[in-house]
Amino acid sequence: MLELNDLSGGYAGEDIVRDISFKVEEGELFGILGPNGSGKTTLLKIISGLLPNSNGELTLQGKPLTVYSSKELARVMAVLPQHTEQFFSYTVKETVSLGRYSHKKGLFQTWKENDEETVQKVMKQTGVAEFQAQYIHELSGGERQRVFLAQALAQEPEVLLLDEPTNHLDLSYQKELLDMLKKLTNERKLTVISIFHDLNLAGLYCDRILLLEKGKIVSINKPNEVLKEERIRAVYKTSIQKQYHPEVPKPQLFLIPEDQEQRKVQINESCLRITDEYISLSSEVYLKCMSSGVTGSGTGWFQTFVNRHVPKTYCCNNHLEEMSGYLRENGFDPSETIGMMTAVILEDVSYRFFEEESFSVFIVVTAGTGNAVDASSSRQHEFMQVPGTINTWVFVNGNISEEAFIQSIMTATEAKVKVLQEMNIKDRLTDTLATGTSTDSILIAATQTGEMLQYAGTATPLGKLIGHGVYTCTSTALKNYLRRGKQ
Ligand SMILES: Nc1ncnc2c1ncn2[C@@H]1O[C@H](COP(=O)(O)OP(=O)(O)OP(=O)(O)O)[C@@H](O)[C@H]1O
User: Fold this and answer.
1) The domain 269-486: what is its CATH number?
2) What is the pTM of this model?
3) Atom number, ligand 1, closest to the C-alpha of residue 45
4) What is the pLDDT of residues 357-378, one digit of tens each?
5) Backbone angles phi, psi at 220, to 5 degrees
6) Domain spans, the chain
7) Domain 2-228, CATH
8) Which residues form the ABC transporter domain (predicted)?
9) What is the average pLDDT value for the chain, to the nearest integer?
10) For residue 106, what pLDDT is reported?
């Protein structure tokens, strides 16, 4: 559709962009990224024919751009520049209608039915139809931006060039605009070439991205390849971290602000509160967590942790909703709380603080084995989700990596299984040694301050402390539970 070969160009004889070669295919959403002044707008101006190239070739649909008359070019290509100067005395509809000009022949132009249809359609698509009779100087920056986009779409182009189209748009219109462009590229095979400042929007929506630095191509590839942590740090000279979007397999980059060091706190017994109804732990700062709680499951940052006692007969169709209601009634915000349930008498909880030279862990375990299961033969069970559970909380006063979070779960689980084996806890159905209960929950929470602890396997200092700590607390909690059962 569009091809650049060794293209250079700039202003007043000075090249700003140099040796640029790439192809954009029909129906692609192609992003141009780069720091301020890297030459994005200059490149877009050359592609649109607004600025001549000093070197190289530029072809559109196989023909050099220079052979197109301006009207011919406007029928194939529409441009939405970065700062569109408003034409003050036009209404929205009149402004959008100007987009139809390239489709008119001769001096006396007639307004046809399909012109009206196209204008109405694009005004609807861009959400400006409702104020079509208003003057554009009466609109907000974002509304005006959408009007000019509608004007570009009214040209019914095959290639749409956009310079930061989401500039001025609020969150929902950013999404709507990009969803719309994506749809047009998929359904109408519109080719979109767009400058982005927001790397995350580019990562979410672009098929491919070109990254410019000082007028030259640094990388041109799929978003995941271009948006590599090291590369973006080097090109933008800033501290970022890359992670995947939680819902779609697209890269997202997070800025790491300076002077936002976590305040140093220690999680220990003084943060714990035990009542007949629940055990809660409150931290003065947010802790980075990985958990299988009823509320707050997965990874996130939390300050409040609740292990709630429920009767053995507890049965509920929607335990998340029920638990959220319970938390709210008791003054906890369910969206900010990791909440678990247990039928165990909470007095039988076991908790202890374990310390090494540069880090420590605080462990809290409630243990019941009413639902004890041998995981290797759990297929034989038809489970009723009744609470008879081992809930394990591991608080690390230290800074732990993602892999250490996962290894902490493994190490804690291994220590728990060891206790069940030693205490000869059996799966009642299979009469084999149990490895857990069917409703066990775990929480690993870390203050993320102090020395970096990269690993938590059983051979590492952190793993050793967690293994020993979970083993000790689970043993005590289970003994308490079994003793109560005998009484
Ligand atoms: N009309 C002009 N005449 C001369 N130099 C210009 C002109 N427009 C831009 N430049 C220079 O070209 C360089 C690249 O500018 P350009 O606008 O292409 O960068 P950009 O990547 O789009 O930047 P931004 O992210 O800030 O919009 C800058 O150093 C700029 O000063």
Assistant:
1) 3.60.70
2) 0.81
3) 18
4) 999 999 999 998 888 888 888 7
5) -145, 115
6) 2-228, 269-486
7) 3.40.50.300
8) 2-239
9) 91
10) 57
Centre of ligand 1 to C-alpha 83, Å, is 13
Query: What is the number of the ligand 1 atom nearest to the C-alpha of 34?
Result: 21
Integer Cα distance of 8 and 46 in angstroms: 9
Q: 24: which DSSP letter?
A: E
Bin 128: left if φ > 0, else alpha if -120 < ψ < 50, else beta: alpha
Taking each helix axis from N to C end, the angle separating 402-422 and 461-486, rounded to the nearest 10 degrees, works out to: 40
The closest residue, in CA terms, to atom 9 on ligand 1 is: 42
pLDDT in tens, 98-156: 888 766 665 556 777 788 999 999 999 888 999 999 998 888 877 888 898 899 999 99
Q: What number is the ipTM of this complex? A: 0.97
Looking at the chain, the number of H-run helices and the number of E-run strands are 12, 26
Tell me how far the alpha carbon of residue 62 lies from the centroid of ligand 1, in angstroms.
29
Going by alpha carbons, the residue nearest to atom 1 of ligand 1 is 11
41, 166, 214, best to mutate for ligand 1 pocket (most atoms within 8 Å of CB): 41
Tell whether ligand 1 has an atom less than 6 A from the beta carbon of residue 163.
no
Instruction: Please give the Cα distance from 93 to 130 (Å, whole number).
Output: 10
Ligand 1 pocket residue status of 324, Cβ below 6 Å = no
Contact 399, 450 (CB under 8 A): yes
Q: What is the pLDDT of residues 187-227, one digit of tens each?
A: 889 999 999 999 999 999 999 999 999 999 999 999 999 99
Q: What percent of the chain has pLDDT over 90?
A: 71
Ligand 1 contact via 42 beta carbon (within 6 Å):
yes
What torsion, rounded to 10 degrees, do the Cα atoms 186, 192, 197, 198 define? 0
Spatial CB neighbours of 277, under 8 Å, sequence gap ≥ 6: 308, 309, 330, 346
Q: At residue 177, what is the residue type?
A: L
